Amino acid sequence: MSRLSPALALLGAAAVIAPSQARIPSERGATLRASLYYVAVEGDYPAGRDGVFRGARGEVLHRGSRAFLQAASVEGSARTARGVSLTFDPEHPARGWSTTLEPYGLDALGCPLAPYRTVAAPKWMPLGTRLYIPETVGLPLPDGRRHDGFWYATDRGVGIEGDRIDLFMRLGEASMRAGERFGLDYLKPLHVRVVGRVHGCPAGPSPHIG
User: Fold this and answer.
1) Parallel/antiparallel/unpaired status of strands 118-120 and 129-132
2) What pLDDT, in 10s, does the model give residues 119-174?
3) What angle do CA 95, 99, 102 make, to 5 degrees?
4) Vertex 136 angle, CA 130 and 141, to 5°
5) Distance of alpha carbon 95 from alpha carbon 105, whole angstroms
6) For the whole model, what pTM was predicted?
7) For residue 125, what is the enclosing H or E element?
8) 153 in helix, strand or coil?
């Protein structure tokens, strides 16, 4: 893991040491580099059966192309051509893949991934941290509304270390285009503030915040 800058250390300390102070947005924060992630959709990749999705006991859950498996292993979630959702925890690869009824898969807390809400955060940031990212205010959402800038750090990710965060979009690589058109370019520096904690799963636009 990369050595943290003083600004990152402040952000981590706000989340760990003084969550009550972090509930109120302030000028304190940190500049983090952001990327976007999504559910890997089988139809986006070449056909094949050389990529095997295995469960915790080694059982075969699905066969697809190696390209699909590799992409899904990075993203942490997959949607097969038959509409089956598969999820994978990169922090515990020995557990293998598992099926889920949640359409986008599960985060590191075992909660459903929430499009345009879930953040995959580095290990120094406690899971459940509520974030405010002003550069995402106004981001167009699929239902026609605009983003309010609030996100929830409830996931981990491959290569998400140091000053990196990953913002969850939706289904397929194409779902990143809305973010890119809005200016959320790969590894773009964003100003991130800790504004509280989420209790339970952030299943909707207004989960219980403490």
Assistant:
1) unpaired
2) 999 999 999 999 999 999 999 998 999 999 999 999 998 889 999 999 999 999 99
3) 120
4) 100
5) 15
6) 0.82
7) none
8) strand
Q: What is the DSSP letter of 150?
A: E
Q: How many CB atoms sit inside 10 A of residue 16's CB?
A: 14
Is the distance from CB of 88 to CB of 101 less than 8 angstroms?
no
CB 44 within 8 A of CB 173: yes
Residue 14 in tokens:
């706000």
Nearest Cα residue to 74 out of 117, 35, 111, 40:
40
Residues contacting 110, CB < 8 A, separation 6+ = none
Pairing verdict, β 188-197 and 129-132: antiparallel
Show Cβ contacts of residue 177 under 8 Å, excluding neighbours closer than 6 positions: none
For 200, the token pair is 């339970």
